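explain this:

___
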Amino acid sequence: MSLPVWPAALPQEYAQEQYSRAARFKPNTTEMEDGPVTSRRQSRIKARREAVYWIMDGAQVELLETFFDDDLKSGAARFTMPTFSPSAASFTARTCHFEGERPDVTPLGGGNWGVSGKITVYY
């Protein structure tokens, strides 16, 4: 079964001004009674957490909500979308999933909406 694909009618790039990323699985660290701490990897999955932001019109917001509810089963399913690759300074299609919650939608005026959310990107 193939993964749902980010709809072509939605923005294919997010605003880099409000973009941030961090490790998805940080190492587990254990304090020792004597000597340095011990660290070990929490997961072998290579993933990062990204905070993303798009500017959309009303029709795009409705399409995103339909995609989230129906195709992604209220955000539970993974999907493929363009994500930022700093090494290539461009966007590359990768497997992603929204982190639990529906993206936040804020009115900007003039029929535009600011849409922000957190996604996990697998690479």
